[in-house]
Backbone:
């Protein structure tokens, strides 16, 4: 089976005047379709840079990224944008919901701009929001939702276009433990039920453990790979 994500000798150098700051150093790995992989490491380890490279949001200084068999380096900006819209769903730490729109409209607009020719299936939207526990909150604006509810709307927005890949950057970073557990459970469930490949960036080893595999990063390099537990840690309230 061909990997859905393949990184080969990735490097990224940021420049400030004459100063060069290496953020990634010769990073190589692959992810299989339907796999859940966490990337864990402290601040400054390069994990967020990796997120932006894999999402086509910035370009590598060296190396290669192949997504679903397509080399990102071979695409111009318009083609990269089209690839992101059709293949990748993004979940960000700060939710990035449009404040003037309801939860439903935030989800629907993501589908509208994805370029899909078929209309959004109301039954699929209902199933997705029921699974995430937000079906009764969709008519509320972000300011009227809790942090956990906002993040679940953001997850629905990422999943509504049926992306092959979901990239999540610190999806529990702004949440308390209870809401963090709920969001992690939803990511794990969506991975299993909708068969999306998930790559989650986190600084939290406990959150990372829900994955099938965990990539450890430090100083711009992958320092180790281990198996995850595949389940959310239980907490006592």
Residues:
């Amino acid at each position: 089976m061909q990997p859905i994500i393949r990184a080969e000798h990735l490097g990224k150098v940021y420049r400030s005047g004459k100063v060069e700051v290496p953020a990634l150093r010769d990073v190589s790995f692959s992810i299989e379709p339907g796999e859940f992989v966490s990337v864990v490491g402290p601040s400054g380890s390069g994990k967020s840079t990796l997120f932006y490279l894999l999402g086509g949001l910035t370009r590598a200084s060296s190396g290669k990224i192949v997504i679903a068999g397509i080399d990102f380096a071979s695409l111009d900006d318009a083609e990269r944008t089209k690839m992101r819209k059709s293949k990748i769903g993004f979940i960000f730490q700060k939710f990035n919901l449009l404040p003037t729109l309801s939860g439903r409209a935030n989800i629907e607009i993501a589908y509208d701009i994805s370029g899909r020719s078929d209309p959004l299936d109301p039954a699929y939207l209902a199933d997705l929001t029921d699974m995430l526990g937000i079906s009764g909150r969709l008519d509320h604006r972000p300011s009227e939702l809790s942090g956990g509810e906002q993040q679940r709307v953001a997850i629905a927005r990422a999943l509504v276009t049926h992306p092959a890949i979901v990239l999540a950057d610190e999806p529990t970073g702004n949440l308390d433990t209870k809401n963090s557990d709920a969001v992690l459970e939803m990511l794990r469930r969506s991975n299993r039920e909708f068969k999306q490949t998930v790559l989650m960036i986190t600084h939290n080893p406990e959150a990372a453990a829900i994955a099938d595999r965990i990539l450890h990063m430090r100083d711009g390099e992958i320092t180790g790979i281990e198996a995850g537990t595949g389940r959310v840690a239980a907490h006592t309230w």
Residues 177-194 form the longest helix (18 residues). The chain has one domain: 33-60+77-227. The two ends are 43 Å apart (CA to CA). Strands lie at 5-16, 19-31, 36-40, 62-67, 70-71, 88-91, 165-169, 197-202, 213-218, 221-227.
